[in-house]
Design goal:
This protein has 15 helices and no strands. It is mainly α.
């Protein structure tokens, strides 16, 4: 049966395509249908490629902690900032739909496109769904006669379906042995929520009158019809601001002196450019503290065996670079080892550590002993 993550990605893809479908429909039915169809096909291909990248990355649990995923998690909220800025200024430069309007939708498409490649990261997935939802709502506002209202239905389905699939996947992953995916309950729950929302939408449509809005663009950058009198210069409290800055500087100086006397000043090590490609060896004390933070059990044994394996490998060969993932280290070891069995053990150990470190599913009995045996086999081959 199809796993939850594939159905979730499909729902996100359908919702995203539906949110930006008014642009494609206008291009295909406009005065230049060939150009519009080309642009629509190009946009769909970009979305498909980004979604396939997310599906490929989600197959490996360690990708959630990879450097690109961490950067995407850190910078995804910037999309919300761009979204708010666009909502604040788009009435000033947006033209009527029949005269080339829709610049806000184009902006949101290119804001959402980098997020699609990281749909396997939960926070990025939520931001992407918010961007697609605002795009669908913006299309309903901009397109005349409420012609874009049907694109809200796939977006509403995504809001009802994706949380249910995420919850179902989390519960299934916590069970041992892990059962097969059952999509019936989450689909039924999402259908009930969606039916209630559709009923409310139909009732509201029947009760409220049709929209009679007239969209008139406002030239924010164009010349003004009448020169306004210059505004008086602001009365800034310069003295008070300088006093606050001085007080802040004195506070920082006092804290710095106190920290210096207490011996808490951190020494920043300068790294020469030639050393930027080498990973820092693992500190045994830090490794011991990190392992002690895990509860006793097979998962902790696997993590401890792998970290000890990395320390042993670093002592014999400098193969790691900053940001090297367990899978990348296994590939480097496999290229260095002569015995094929030792290379296969390196791959199994990396995969075992990835499941123990990032997969919420329970770790089976004997996993720790197997990890230690694989580590000994790889280190013996070195």
């Amino acid at each position: 049966m199809m796993p939850e993550r594939l159905l979730r990605t499909a729902a996100l893809l359908v919702a995203t395509c539906a949110a930006f479908s008014p642009l494609a429909v206008r291009g295909v039915t406009g005065p230049h249908p060939a150009t519009g169809a080309r642009d629509a096909l190009f946009g769909v291909v970009l979305l498909l490629l980004a979604a396939l990248q997310s599906v490929r990355a989600e197959a490996s649990p360690e990708e959630l902690d990879s450097p690109p995923a961490r950067r995407a998690r850190r910078f995804a909220p910037l999309a919300v900032g761009l979204l708010l800025v666009g909502l604040a200024v788009f009435p000033y430069f947006e033209h009527p739909w029949r005269h080339g309007g829709g610049a806000l939708l184009v902006l949101l498409f290119f804001v959402d496109l980098p997020l699609v490649a990281f749909w396997h990261v939960p926070s990025v997935r939520a931001v992407s769904l918010v961007v697609a939802s605002v795009a669908a709502l913006g299309a309903v506002v901009i397109v005349p006669d409420d012609a874009a209202a049907p694109c809200l239905l796939p977006v509403a389905a995504a809001w009802a379906l994706i949380p249910a699939l995420d919850r179902a996947a989390a519960v299934r992953g916590a069970l041992e042995p892990r059962p097969r995916a059952r999509l019936g309950p989450p689909l039924a729950a999402a259908a009930v929520v969606l039916a209630a929302g559709a009923g409310l939408f139909v009732a509201t449509t029947l009760v409220t009158p049709a929209s009679t809005r007239s969209w008139t663009p406002r030239a924010m950058l164009g010349p003004r019809a009448r020169a306004a009198p210059p505004a008086p210069p602001p009365d800034l409290p310069v003295g008070k601001l300088l006093g606050l800055l001085l007080a802040a500087a004195l506070t920082l100086a006092a804290w710095n002196a106190h920290a210096s006397r207490a011996g808490r000043r951190r020494q920043v090590a300068l790294v020469m450019p030639m050393e930027a490609g080498q990973a820092r060896p693992l500190d045994p004390d830090e490794v011991a503290r990190a392992v002690a933070a895990w509860p006793p059990g097979e998962r902790r044994d696997v993590v401890e065996a792998y970290l000890g394996h990395v320390s042993a490998v670093d002592a014999r060969a400098r193969l790691r670079e900053p940001g090297t993932t367990p899978a990348a280290l296994a590939r480097a070891l496999r290229a260095r080892l002569q015995a094929r069995e030792a290379g296969a053990a390196a791959d199994r150990l990396a995969e075992r550590f990835g499941r123990a470190r990032w997969d919420p599913a329970p770790v089976g009995p004997g996993e720790g002993a197997a990890a230690r045996e694989e580590a000994r086999e790889v280190e013996g081959g070195l």
